[in-house]
Amino acid sequence: MTNLFPKNFEWGVATSSYQIEGAALEDGRTAGIWDAFCEDHSRIADGSDGAVACDHYHRFREDVALMRELGVTSYRMSFSWPRLFPTDSPEPNEQGVRFYRELFAALHDAGISVMATLYHWDLPVWLARRGGFASRETAQVFADFATRLFSLFGDDVDYWVTINEPSVIASLGYITGEHAPGERDMAKAMAAAHHLLLAHGLAVQRFREAGLRSKIGIVLNLVKYVPDSPRPRDRFARFKLDLFYNEWFLSALGEGRYPPLPAGFLRRAKCHPDVHHGDMEIIAQPVDFVGVNYYTRARVRAAHCPSQMNCVLADDPGDEATDMGWTIDPDGLRDVCKRVYRTLRKPLYITENGAAFDDELTGGAVHDEKRTDYLRRHIEAVEQLLLDWVDVRGYYVWSLLDNFEWAHGYTRRFGITHVNFDTGERTPKDSALWYRDFIRDHRRS
Ligand code: GBH
């Protein structure tokens, strides 16, 4: 059997702090914006929150053992900022530091490399009170946070990620308000997007100054947008969504400029972010790799909807979708990766890819053929990318565990491991067993 995957290709699984850790107010952690957001239970599908989640804070050894059994080579996780810095004091919370040290030691013993994200949406409330990412000052506070983590964990982390999905934070957190902090304000969204990118760039600067051997990059969520029809207005609607969710970030990081705005409507609406002299150079400084999160393609149609730039998402009749309603399109992964590689010319890691399905635990097993099929087809797309000379160096399944799926609470299961949220019990699904066998057959050491 031909094996195209290069030596040192990372086969991984991914999670994030608020979605799995629980222990929300234990051992000195203070509230983050998601704790605060969930207090209004109407915002979360099942009225839940991440206070307990997968209880990974207490069960991390079991979770590392699960990963070892899967044979993964790498684990992508994120730090909980309010756990490490519960107040604005520069002194870290020792119990928080101890948790991550023990986690990294366990991973190290299991021979699993670490990809650590500095910001996967777990912002301390003390910083949100100062304006959060809508405020420029937060970019500096983030850079100080990053510097402290570089010195605390240094080369225990193999791959540092600055920010997870700036476009999703800006859109769901500041335009639709579906995510924390729940704002609906286009000007704030554009400001937040700029400050997230600036925070990224400042952290990369600090990383270079720290002289670590490990690598640093950013993770972007890319959606493949297609027009709902060949009509010009639908094609222009597609162009606008692609501009704000994809091109805006690629252009800033790759070329050090924001793309020109069609019709100048953002400027007229006074939504263009306030870019200071020198910001774009900071944002565009070279990274070591780029992470791509890919889930779906989306069809776009022009319609009267001023809050969404007169673009709406159309159903994809006849196409298979996951339980999120997201169309399954493995070729989309190829398309977005080729585009990122063409514009940024850096090694790529698929830092998230996976699917939510309504799984049933029967007789100690979960027969999630649809998820296995989803993963297999997307991994085949990665093989195609390698044949197309795209430098893909790793693939991480979202997610190791069923977890707190943001506004969907516990109603959507993305895990390859089933979690019983009453008992905390973990059960590898059939997809996990398939992934284990696939890795065994394809990893080279
Ligand atoms: C990721 O975000 C997050 O990093 C992770 O924490 C989360 O659990 C995971 O995905 C699963 O949701 O245009 O309506 O067809 C993914 C962000 C934003 C990706 C919406 C898909 C397009 C949906 N998603 N996007 S649509």
UniProtKB/TrEMBL annotation:
One of its GO terms (biological process) is cellulose catabolic process. Keywords: Carbohydrate metabolism, Cellulose degradation, Glycosidase, Hydrolase, Polysaccharide degradation. Pfam families: Glyco_hydro_1 (PF00232). It catalyses: Hydrolysis of terminal, non-reducing beta-D-glucosyl residues with release of beta-D-glucose. Its EC number is 3.2.1.21. GO terms for molecular function: beta-glucosidase activity. One of its GO terms (cellular component) is cytosol. Belongs to the glycosyl hydrolase 1 family. This is Beta-glucosidase.
